[in-house]
Amino acid sequence: MTAALRFDPIRLPPKCEALRKEVRTFLADEIAAGTFDPHKPQREDNDAPEFSRRVGARGWIGMTWPKQYGGHERSFLERYVVTEEMRVANAPTRRFFVADRQSGPVLLKYAPEHVKMDILPRICRGEVCFAIGMSEPNSGSDLFAAKTRATKTDGGWLINGSKIWTTSAHMADYMIAIFRTSPPTQENRRHGLTQFLVDMKTPGITVNPIRQITGQSEFNEVVFTDTFVPDDHMLGERDGAWKQATSELAYERSGPERFLETYYVLTELVRAVGRDPDTRAAEGIGRLVAQLHAMRRMSVSVAGMLQTGKEPVVEASIVKDIGTVWEQQLPHRVRDLAAFVDADPSNHATLDEQLAFATKLAPKLTIQGGTTEVLRGIIARGLGLR
Amino acid sequence: MADDDNIIVATAERIFADLADAQTVIHNKDGSWKAPLWHALSEAGLPLSWVPDDCDGSGASLADGFAVLNAAGRAALAAPLAETMLAGWLLAQAGLASPPDAMTVAPARPRDRIILNDDGTLSGIARGVPFAVDAKHIAAVATGAHGVSVALVDASACRISAGLSIADDPRDTVTLDRVRPLAIKPAPAGFDLTSLLLMGGVARSLQIAGALETLLDISVGYANERVAFEKKIGKFQAVQHNLARLAGEAAAALAAASSAADAIANAAQFDDAIFLEAVSAKIRSSEAAEKAAAIAHQVHGAIGFTSEHVLHRFTLRALAWRDDFGNESHWAVELGRQVAARGADELWPLVASR
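Predict the joint structure of the above. Result:
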């Protein structure tokens, strides 16, 4: 075979099911207490600091990290269960999710010991929010076109330039960003970028919210003017960020959040059609459920491979490609299938509201965190075409 | 399912490569490859993989048998291997021994029924039965006044009207008119026609996934050789992205089929969870077959549309296998009804239980 695709039928171990029950009970209590409404994914404010702390207190942030940094040394499959239950419940995870998924693992790998000891335990307690500074006004998918400069100064670096489309920057305590420390070389256009940890309270940072087509303002423009970053906040190799980006992507791309972002409209459709749907609705729902099950089995398989220390970059890219295209199309399929549903059922207003929101949200799903085009390029490389 | 270390799969793959290579099959239009192939498969004990030792079979595990079927799909095998394996498995469910030689199973479609009459004979019409014309015996699920039975029937006692799938493999109509079975026993509790169709559906899903793996392989290989507009067509982004989608479809089919096979291999009963796994595998692999076949042909251009090229052996079989043991529309309706009957808030717990 040119392409040895591997998706072993990994099962979640029995201890995951006990954990799943704990998470469901916790979420049911939070819903009952009014922390969030699971039927309203469109709520304006997804920031819930107290909820984050309670999730942290349960030990569900930094689950796979070493105990010395506040982690819990649990498996990727246990983390998987927590992530998917939170996602399906539409829990307000924004404050801690990026740190848990991406920023924490980067710090674990590249930050100096005292920085790890300072920040990682606070992430685990649900106290700090992270943003990721990748895109710039003229550099999106083409990461290596980044121009925002880090210039060497006494004891650190001065940052000048701007990042854009930076999710959660308005509420973030820290950003992990790539800045240009050297020009690219003739041989390697990826050379010259360095990863840094930025404290968002540093003077010289302006965060300007950007309104999205959903009506929300989750992403921002972040402007740096002579912003000082100390030497010990450089992460990994100077000029070598390009070597550090790839392994991160397998974690970022294959999780349940890559196909469950609009799942709620499927639940509401099933509610709307009732217990005895007509053939058309039944077939439509059956296909969607089969597709969902197949994707989840692929995604769990990748989580299982990550657990055994593999870096299934191609498989993870396939999960994100298929998953995000599916969750993008889902509101449109649900709209089709709901066309003949009586306006009678009490949830119809909920379904309409959710569909309106999911339809507006859908375009971003195949753009954020690696566009479909970038993913297919990675898959093609894995197939031996590039 | 790359089972490099599985000796049963390795044996099967060697036989497929030596005696039923796609190019060889195309060149031998008289079908002269069939008898030596079947002889070798029988010698290796593969057709009766799922028949326990005490029922005259090879006693391989369900998992090994499923892996062989995946390999058969990768080879686009046009012989009643899956059918004989399924028949042996079905007979063993009721404790019936398997005769040697090729078999098939009936009914093979969800709307067909075979009835056990009061006088102990069987009646009914089963359409789309794979390889019935090549089978010496038929293993049947029959419904009578006292429940479900499994029967072994002499194929020559049935009226068999020959038909062909779109891949030109036999798909026949089998008519039983008060046929007396050679052997018959009650099916175990909870076993019915749906159980056979789900098992057959998972077998077909693995075959489809295997065919798609090969489609990906030969399409990538071709894109890396064929030059047009002064470069290899695999260097064009449009072609790369099509092949990436083909990889995704092959991956989805493989993941769904492997998951369902694993679920059945480790289950005691055909319950709701097995139903979800099995029908999802059939639905998803069938959907993948449509998309993957279209891309593979698109990449190959006109040469792949010729009968001399091997491509059609994989594309047409993947498409034809969709129709056996309940097509994706049938199972989607059944799954959708089950999901609706359980209620909206039970959907996620069902999906998460797997």
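Strands of chain A lie at 130-133, 149-153, 156-164, 174-180, 193-199, 205-210, 219-230, 234-235.
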